[in-house]
Amino acid sequence: MKWAAIFFALIAVSAAGWYILQPTHSQTSTQTDERMALPAGALATVRLPPSFTEQEQIGKRAYGAACATCHGVNGQGQDGVAPPLVHKIYEPGHHGDMAFVLAAQNGVRAHHWKFGNMPAVEGVTRAEVLNIVAYIRALQRENGIN
Predict the structure, then answer these.
(1) CA distances (Å), 143 to each of 11, 47, 146, in order?
(2) DSSP character for 47?
(3) C-alpha of 41 from chain center
(4) Residues 77-105 pLDDT 10s
(5) Which residue, 101, 70, 102, is CA-closest to 85?
(6) 93, exposed or middle or buried, with CB in 10 Å at 0-12, 13-18, 19+?
(7) What CATH class has 41-142?
(8) Cα-atom radius of gyration of the chain, to the nearest Å?
């Protein structure tokens, strides 16, 4: 009898934990709020700022051309490909702006994620990377990563 009570208590706690950890309806359904979207295969939900500065807009275009294929639209990451850049790991205090410049220039050995090493990004200038960083930082701020 005692084991049965423990068993049912564990099932109840597990079910409650599962329910709490499920994505909200807005994360799994078609988004009506265009500022928050979760494309197929994305690893994070990213809320978009209401507007971008000129540098951030330039960075967004450069990001789309050089980074989005692997890191996903708006830095959300791609399941099985690359991590989200809008993530606490990439906050300015842990990965400064130069870490992004060096990653694009030299590539990066995998150290936080199990996606494998990142190769250098060919044809992207330091100025373009700094614009991309400005865009990523704007996304991070909007998502509470400072």
Answers:
(1) 34, 6, 9
(2) E
(3) 12
(4) 999 999 999 999 999 999 999 999 999 99
(5) 70
(6) exposed
(7) mainly alpha
(8) 19
- For residue 54, give the DSSP letter: H
Q: What is the pTM of this model?
A: 0.74
Whether the CB-CB separation of 107 and 120 falls below 8 Å is answered with: yes
Range of weakest confidence among 9-13, 33-37, 116-120: 9-13
Amino acid identity, residue 131?
A: N
Identity of residue 102? L
Looking at the DSSP bridge assignments, the partners of residue 37 are 46
Question: Does 34 have pLDDT greater than 80?
Answer: no
Whether the Cβ atoms of residue 48 and residue 59 lie closer than 8 Å to each other: no
Closest CA to 139 of 47, 35, 40: 47
DSSP one-letter code for 23: P
**How many whole angstroms from its chain centre is CA 24?**
18
